Structure to design on (873 residues):
């Protein structure tokens, strides 16, 4: 039996650990409500002071590192660090080889529009294909390499360049699930990377696992040791603790001021066009697997954010979730060709990750779960490759 | 010279490591085992695990992680103990001698007992006799009541007992407790600092060690509890999760404050 | 190179799980036993112990372990490491709630650590001053170990003392007499420093470097 937050649309089967109070309000909503009581001006003063401490007076080194994907958040972070904090950042990007055209254009524009140096690190594509396949089989997530790269490579670069300060954006799990309070001023930790970003797996778990991956293929994935972190005095600050984050407002500003581009076509699994342009599978099959595992998807994530920002009612959100969470997206076709896998094999492996807390099989062999709008539905799995035109997404028993 | 101790306290709820606030709000941080790895690497002095689960469900909610759900608190303890080469205290939900034995068998060096000790104080004496005083820590949760006085609370900080913390601590010592774990319900998770007056009152009255907990907002607070509160050990839950190499940084702060802690 | 085998003397006392975990981590094969044949097979012995002197001796007697241990340790010279109460039982006499006879391997008495101005039990990490070279610390100087005890071993033959600790006054932190070694602290609970003591003991037992 899945139950849902009374304010947003998150289920208790959420990928992000959630707690619920006696009114069934989830910890994500509870923490989001803290935003009103925070003195954001005081926070701004505080981050400015921190910036002053780290500014390299003689300009002999960068003042900070900003991990950027080219997405809306990285644009805002870079704008903020340069224009508001007056710092000289080094932009660092991990290239997961899944860029949408518009995402790559946005990324390439950054060093021109903001006037920054930029490291665009690209691992060997053959290795990426192997990791895509292996991690899909191992943990039902072909994008593990990206979670690893994004949280590891910028810190590696920081240690190499001896730049202590790293500016991350929002703390994802704080934002979605209220893992921490906004007063904790939580900073980035190796534990967070390993446990939450990487689900407990690290580079050495990928060696000798049937894909012929060797240690030398994963140099970029090795997080610095504690001694290295201590020597450079690495500090990862989340700007989300110091700025009242509003993705819609911020993106609008980036579009108007600097020419950020949103997706020209709508996504299949969510209504937002400004998110996840840096990785075609993030809103696509990576997220589809979240639905297969836990019964909800990116649309629920975005609706939840917009409910908490007061831009959407729960009823409106439920309608969107009903329409989009379950969609099997067409980027699957690119991925199947990329890693040389059949759709049948993909579906079989995906099904092995269905969470028994959420899904049961009907007597007809269909997967069934509770719905946020009440009742249960069966969700037959459509085939994209057998039918090149419109794919049926009908729900049975709705 | 005997060192003052710095002790992270990990609160477990239904198999999760949680961030605690005023004993009522619990945010889920993840799996307790990942944090143990970090503490081992940072050489903290001891580890205290308190199981604050109120029912029996232990489930991290997903099966696609490298570390799977353990089978209840005892399962978690067994895995933690295998790689924990420092004193390990495991408390919470301990009501009988068998409960203590189950934990000691699986690698706990010490246990904390709380509500059961309040219900039947002889439990302290019996446990100390069987396992040794050094194994029995009496945990005392304190809140300020409507009259502005300190009062001992039971059942997860919810039920007033009418007892004064100093009196109950002295009784516990007489009954055979090896140490006292003193927690402030009001300060828990607030980051406003320890209740130094409370700690000093209890620490000065006892000849057994006192471990202070509840309210740490910055590393200097540890130093204040040890120096001004006369505590023998300073513990905290939340703060260790907020920054990288947190325990190392805390230790550096204490050394700078001139306190006698391990290097 | 074959693994060192260690036997933990099983007499019903002691935090056996912790000791076992540490030894396993160091790569030795560990058994827990009170059987002569099994103890004899092992390369070395550990005598753990948490509790009272009286209880410890009574349990050893009850399991008929005293003649077994005398045979293995005194006659056969098997290396043995006593931990905490385990070390204290090696003394001639113990004075905890009465007077009781110990194993008598070390000319010493176990008395209450009663000094004014300090808290008892002695719980926590304390600096340990190495008084002399020992098989337990081939290279290492002052270290910090974890202690938890209310009684201490007073040695009559000072050459038995390998290390001292201070809590109100100096007391015996470690002893060594030929193949008989003992530590008042808990090496299995003293992280890196503690594990290195255990490793040194195991190395000594095998006579070769252990990889760990």
């Amino acid at each position: 039996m899945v139950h849902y937050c009374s304010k947003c649309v998150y289920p208790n089967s959420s990928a992000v650990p959630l707690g619920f109070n006696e009114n069934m309000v989830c910890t994500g909503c509870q923490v989001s409500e803290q935003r009103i009581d925070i003195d954001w001006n005081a926070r701004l003063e505080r981050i400015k002071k921190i910036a002053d401490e780290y500014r390299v007076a003689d300009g002999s080194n960068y003042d900070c590192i900003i991990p950027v994907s080219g997405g809306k958040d990285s644009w805002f972070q870079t704008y903020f660090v340069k224009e508001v904090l007056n710092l000289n950042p080094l932009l660092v990007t991990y290239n997961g080889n899944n860029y949408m055209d518009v995402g790559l254009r946005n990324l390439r524009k950054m060093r021109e529009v903001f006037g920054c140096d930029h490291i665009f690190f690209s691992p060997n594509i053959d290795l990426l294909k192997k990791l895509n396949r292996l991690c899909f089989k191992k943990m039902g997530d072909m994008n593990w390499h990206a979670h690893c790269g994004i949280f590891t490579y910028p810190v590696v670069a920081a240690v190499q360049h001896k730049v202590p300060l790293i500016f991350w954006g929002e703390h994802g799990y704080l934002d979605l699930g209220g893992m921490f309070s906004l007063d904790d001023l939580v900073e980035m930790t190796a534990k967070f990377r390993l446990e939450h970003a990487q689900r407990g797996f690290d580079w050495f778990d990928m060696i000798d696992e049937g894909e012929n991956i060797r240690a030398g293929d994963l140099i970029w994935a090795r997080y610095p040791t504690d001694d290295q972190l201590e020597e450079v005095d690495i500090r990862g600050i989340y700007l989300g603790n110091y700025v009242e984050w509003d993705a819609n407002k911020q993106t609008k500003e980036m579009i108007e001021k600097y020419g950020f581009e949103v997706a020209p076509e709508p996504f299949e699994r969510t209504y937002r066009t400004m998110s996840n342009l840096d990785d075609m599978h993030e809103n696509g099959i990576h997220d589809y697997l979240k639905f297969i595992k836990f019964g909800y998807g990116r649309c629920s994530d975005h609706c939840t954010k917009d409910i908490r920002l007061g831009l959407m009612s729960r009823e409106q959100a439920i309608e969107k979730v009903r329409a989009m969470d379950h969609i099997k997206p067409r980027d699957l076709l690119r991925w199947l060709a990329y890693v040389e896998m059949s759709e049948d094999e993909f579906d079989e492996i995906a099904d092995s990750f269905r969470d028994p807390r959420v899904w049961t099989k009907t007597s007809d062999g269909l997967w069934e779960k509770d719905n946020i709008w009440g009742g249960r539905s069966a969700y037959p799995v459509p085939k994209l490759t057998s039918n090149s035109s419109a794919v049926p997404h009908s729900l049975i028993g709705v | 010279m005997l060192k003052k101790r710095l002790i992270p306290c990990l609160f477990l709820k239904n198999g999760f490591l949680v961030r605690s606030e005023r004993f009522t709000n619990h945010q889920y941080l993840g799996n307790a085992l990942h944090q143990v790895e970090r503490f081992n690497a940072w050489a903290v002095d001891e580890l205290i695990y308190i199981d604050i689960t109120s029912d029996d469900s232990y489930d991290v909610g997903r099966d696609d992680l490298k570390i799977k759900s353990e089978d209840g608190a005892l399962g978690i303890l067994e895995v933690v103990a295998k790689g924990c080469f420092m004193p390990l205290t495991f408390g919470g939900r301990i009501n009988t001698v068998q409960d203590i034995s189950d934990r000691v068998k699986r690698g706990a060096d010490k246990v904390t007992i709380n509500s059961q000790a309040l219900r039947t104080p002889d439990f302290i004496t019996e446990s100390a006799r069987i396992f040794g005083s050094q194994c029995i820590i009496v945990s005392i949760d304190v809140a300020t009541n409507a009259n502005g006085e300190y009062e001992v609370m039971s059942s997860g900080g919810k039920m007033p007992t009418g007892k004064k913390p100093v009196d109950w601590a002295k009784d516990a010592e007489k009954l055979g407790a090896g140490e006292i774990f003193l927690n402030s319900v009001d300060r828990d998770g607030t980051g406003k600092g320890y209740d130094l007056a409370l700690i000093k009152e209890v620490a000065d009255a006892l000849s057994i060690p006192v471990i202070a907990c509840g309210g740490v907002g910055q590393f200097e607070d540890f130093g204040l509890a040890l120096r001004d509160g006369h505590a023998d050990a300073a513990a905290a839950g939340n703060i260790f999760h907020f920054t990288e190499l947190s325990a190392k940084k805390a230790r550096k702060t204490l050394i700078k404050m001139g306190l006698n802690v391990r290097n | 190179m074959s693994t060192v085998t260690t036997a933990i003397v099983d007499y019903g006392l002691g935090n056996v799980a912790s000791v076992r975990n540490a030894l396993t981590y160091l790569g030795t094969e560990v058994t827990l036993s009170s059987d002569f044949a099994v103890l004899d097979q092992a390369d070395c012995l550990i005598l753990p112990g948490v509790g009272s002197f009286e209880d410890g001796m009574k349990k050893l007697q009850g399991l008929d372990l005293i003649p077994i241990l005398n045979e293995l340790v005194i006659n056969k010279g098997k290396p043995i490491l006593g931990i905490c109460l385990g070390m204290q039982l090696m003394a001639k006499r113990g004075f905890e709630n009465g007077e009781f006879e110990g194993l008598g391997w070390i000319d010493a008495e176990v008395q209450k650590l009663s000094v004014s101005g300090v808290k008892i039990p002695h719980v926590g990490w304390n600096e340990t001053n190495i008084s002399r070279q020992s098989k337990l610390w081939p290279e290492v100087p002052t270290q910090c170990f974890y202690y938890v005890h209310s009684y201490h071993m007073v040695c009559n033959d000072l050459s038995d003392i390998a290390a001292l600790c201070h809590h109100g006054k100096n007391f015996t932190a470690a002893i060594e007499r030929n193949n008989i070694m003992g530590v008042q602290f808990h090496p299995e609970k003293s992280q890196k420093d503690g594990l290195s003591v255990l490793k040194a003991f195991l190395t000594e037992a095998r006579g070769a470097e252990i990889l760990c």
Notes: The longest strand of chain C covers residues 122-130. The radius of gyration of chain C is 16 Å. Residues 191-206 of chain C form the longest helix (16 residues).
